[in-house]
Amino acid sequence: MIDPERSHVRIVSLLxxxxxxxxxxxxxDQLVAVTHECDFPDFVRGLPKATRTLIPKDAPSGEIDRQVxxxxxxxxxxxxxxxxxxxxxxxxxxxxxxxxxxxxxAEQEVRDAACALPGRPPIxxxxxxxxxxxxxxxxxxxxxxxxxxxxxxxxxxxxxRVEAVAVRSLRLERRPRVALLEWLDPPFSCGHWNPELVxxxxxxxxxxxxxxxxxxxxxxxxxxAAPDVVFVxxxxxxxxxxxxxxxxxRDATAWRALPAVRAGRVYVANGSHYFSRxxxxxxxxxxILAHALxxxxxxxxxxxxxxxxxxxxxx
Length: 315
What we know:
alpha/beta, 2 domains, Rossmann fold, globular
C-alpha cells in the first residue's frame, strides 16, 4: 500500500476503466500517464500516453476482427507500451488488467517494464468478471493508493443505485427477451457483467451468460434466440460508428427475421463509454439499459444519454 501522506502518488493507468476508477476515487491529479484510449473524465485526454494500438480503429469491423484473431492466434501484441514515457514519468503505481487480451497491454509486458523502472513500482492487476468483482476492483485500487475508506464510500454509492434499479425491476410483469450484442461483424454475445446488467434491468439475456466471456455467434444463433429487444453496444465504438454496422444489416435476411427488428426495438449505445469498461460507469450502463427496456418503470437519470432507437428496423 502506498503511504497516503505522500503528496503525489504518480499513477499510470493502462486501462480506460482503471483510469475512471482512479478518478472516481479523487486521484485524478495523481495520474501521470494513461492509455491512448482513455477519454473520461475529459481532462485525461491531455495526459501523456503510455500505450499505442497496433490495430487500425478506422478499419471495417470485419477487418478489425480478422486482425485481432490473427494476432491473438500468433501471440502477437495488440498494444505496445511506450517505455520511454514510463521511464521519464517514474510512476510509483501501475494499474492494469489481465482479463482480456483484446483490451490492454499484455500482463507480462507490463511486469517486465515495471521491473526495469526505477523503484520497481507495484502493479495492481484488475480482473473483474461480475459487478461484485468490479466493486472489488475499486476497493483494490483504493487500498493500493492508501485510501480504503474512500473506496468503500464509492462502492456503497454504486450499490445503492444498482439496488434501486433491481427493486423497480422486481415489480415488472413482463421481462423481454434481450440480445445485448458487443460486436456485429461477426456478431458477439455480451459477456462477463453485461448479462447481469440485463437481468437487473428487467430483461432476459438470450445469448450471453453471467460471469462468462463473450463469444462469437452466427446470425442463425441470433435468429433462433428470437430476442424481443436487440441492444447493441459495440466494444470500443461510439454510437455513430456503430450505426455504420447496423445500417449495413438492414437488408440481411437474418436481421429482418428478428422479432426486435420487426417490432422496431433495436437500440444503440456508446460501447466505448458504457458496457465495455468495468468501472463506475457500468452502473450508468445499467440505468441506460433499464430505461430502454422499461421506460415507464425506469426513468433515465439526468445527465445520462438515452440509447438511440435505430432506424435499421422494419417498424
